Amino acid sequence: MPITDYDAPRTATAELDEDSLEELQARRTAAAQSPTLDLDGMDIDDGFELPGADLSSEELTVSVVPMLSDEFRCSRCFLVHHRSQRTIGGNGQEICTECA
Q1: Backbone dihedral region for residue 52 (phi beyond 0: left; psi -120 to 50: alpha; all else: beta)
Q2: What's this model's pTM, rounded to 2 decimal places?
Q3: Which pLDDT score, from 0 to 100, does residue 93 have?
Q4: CA 52 from centre of chain
Q5: Tell me, what's the pLDDT at 26?
């Protein structure tokens, strides 16, 4: 699939008709031989992590805030919500309005 540069200046249709068949074929082979992605200049190892990478040596630094008096924990999604989003489920458990 040819790559179109929409920012390049457009040529008139008269100029397109003047291109010879040999020039068009030469352009096509030159475009086919040019790489679409240059990986040589990229440092793939820098900042790239694979899914499932071993993160056991990493330390997690998160501040844990205790649940406030006007909050509750949903028994379905286990997220902490404000009490204005609380409903009682069919089995008497507190659930949020999103899970209801």
Answers
A1: left
A2: 0.40
A3: 93
A4: 17
A5: 80
* 65 has a pLDDT exceeding 70: yes
pLDDT in tens, 43-56: 555 566 667 778 78
- Which candidate, 72, 61, 3, places its Cα nearest to that of 32? 3
**In sequence order, which residues have a C-beta less than 8 Å from that of residue 77 and are 6 or more positions away?**
96, 98, 99
CA distance 80 to 77: 9
Q: Are residues 80 and 57 in contact, defined by beta-carbon separation less than 8 angstroms?
A: no
Q: Where are the beta strands (DSSP E) in 1-100?
A: 71-73, 80-82, 86-88, 94-96
Q: What is the dihedral of CA 57, 63, 66, 68, to 10 degrees?
A: -150
The amino acid sitting at 4 is T
Is 79 within 8 Å of 73 (Cβ atoms)? Answer: yes
